[in-house]
Give the backbone structure.
Amino acid sequence: MKLPVVSGKDAVRAFGKLGYVTVRQTGSHIRMKHQSDCSKKPLTIPNHTVVGKGLLKKLLRDSELTIEEFCNLL
């Protein structure tokens, strides 16, 4: 399955459904941490119109998600 083209706002919404909450925002970068599971890595998502493919792959890897699971959250 191919990576979807998503905006930063869509990515924040999708990760929010998994239990990630916004901790802070510096400029256009939104920092999210998992609410209950401290072993999951924090995510930094740029609030851009399109999140790059490489960064999206890294976010999925850090959150331990597959592409299919992420697409279902959108």
